[in-house]
Amino acid sequence: MNFEIDAAIQGPLAALRERGRDEARPIGLEADRLGRPIPVDDPYFAKLVARGEGRTRWRGPDGERKARSKPKSTGSRPSRRTVKTLLFVEELAYWDRGVVVANPGVGLPEANVIAMGTDEQKERFLGPFLTPDRPRWACFAMTEPGAGSDAAAIQTAAQKDGDHWILNGAKCFIGNATRSDWILAQATVDPSQGRDAQRAFFIEQGTPGLGGFRIEKKMGLKAYESTSFTLQDCRIPDANLLGGEARYEKRDGFKGAMKAFNAGRPIVAANAVGIGRAALDEALAFAREHDRLADARVRDRLERAARKLKVARLLCLKAGWLADQEKSNIIEASMSKLVAAQVGQEATSLGMELLGTVGARGDHLIEKLYRDVKALDMVEGTGQIQRIIMARKLVGLPR
């Protein structure tokens, strides 16, 4: 494994660092102060789209055809796309993780649509993200009031009705749902069958029955919206069933959702490392400014945080490297997410301890980072769930 940051990545990383400092952190601090998500019509989002951001990595119908017709080269150099993404995500989260999630784009469902979607679905739902004419969003809706960590327990019902499906249920804590062009929602055709009965449906914004949107108040990460909504007799055409019915003969519905999480967990880990690094840098600056570095205990705590952040970063990159090699990374994805979330919390907690009464004022960056990082232990599977996944794999339990 070689995690050296080569010249091809160093340039874009430097540009991200500059934009993070000049754009992302100021707008993230403003959103936190005002206690609301960045508005859809904020010039910041338009600037991103004008710069070519917010696009899908799907190559379009012509690119797909060329890729299929091109013979595979056995001597080709392995991709570093995932590792590169993780490095970029970490840098962005260093400046503001809430802004990262708020940024336009397909987001979490993109990998599933590329892997499982029909050609027609990719063109229809990803096509507008190839060269977006405006800031566009999409989102993935799995979590429900009674099904968070236990994703197999969802109750949103999908009932077949001729050449349509009728969806009924409720979703919660879904990122960017009110502003998304479409939502990829997970539902079940029979709750008694658990994960084997799950399906994923494209629900376009404005579909009758999709409503009850409520943006939740959060302790941190206020730059993006976490939304609850309901589905009431929501009528969805067959063409909006991800991959078509044949996909689900092999119980691909739940597997597809879990693949999205396996891909997303190292990204969550990279976010936690980025926030932890920011907290450590701020804590070090505060300790230096207030002559605290002469205290051996302070130096020891700072060194321990730096060491643990480096370990978390290497775990994260290992999970990404395996993904780029097209090897299983279930254990590494869970391990990176578990460790990085904990280390991120440790780094921000250390910062708060060093701040003392200054942290209680609520106007220091470390205090914001302390609130922001907590969510990363919960999203895409809590720390407890990651330990269950790793333990089951260790002793050879199925699925």
Structural features, described:
The protein is an alpha+beta fold. It has a domain at 137-252: Beta Barrel (Butyryl-CoA Dehydrogenase, subunit A, domain 2). It is built from twelve helices and seven strands. It has helices at residues 7-34, 43-50, 60-69, 81-102, 110-116, 119-126, 252-289, 296-324, 330-355, 357-360, 365-373, 383-395; strands at 137-141, 157-161, 164-175, 180-188, 198-204, 210-215, 226-237. The strands form two sheets. It has a four-stranded antiparallel sheet, with no helix packed on it. It has a three-stranded mixed sheet with strand order 1-4-5, with helices on one face. The longest helix is centred in the C-terminal third of the chain and has 38 residues, at 252-289. The two termini are 28 Å apart.
The proportion of residues forming helix, as a percent range, comes to 40-55%
Order of helix and strand elements from N to C terminus? HHHHHHEEEEEEEHHHHHH
Q: What is the general shape?
A: globular
Return the structural class.
alpha+beta
CATH architecture of one domain: Beta Barrel
Side by side, the strands of the main sheet go: 2-3-7-6
Name of the CATH first level of one domain: Mainly Beta
CATH superfamily annotation of one domain: Butyryl-CoA Dehydrogenase, subunit A, domain 2
N-end to C-end Cα span: 28 Å
Mean pLDDT: 90
* Largest sheet: number of strands, sense, barrel closure: 4 strands, antiparallel
What is the overall number of helices? Answer: 12
Strand content: 5-15%
Give the tally of β-strands. 7
Could you please say which CATH topology of one domain applies here?
Butyryl-CoA Dehydrogenase, subunit A, domain 2
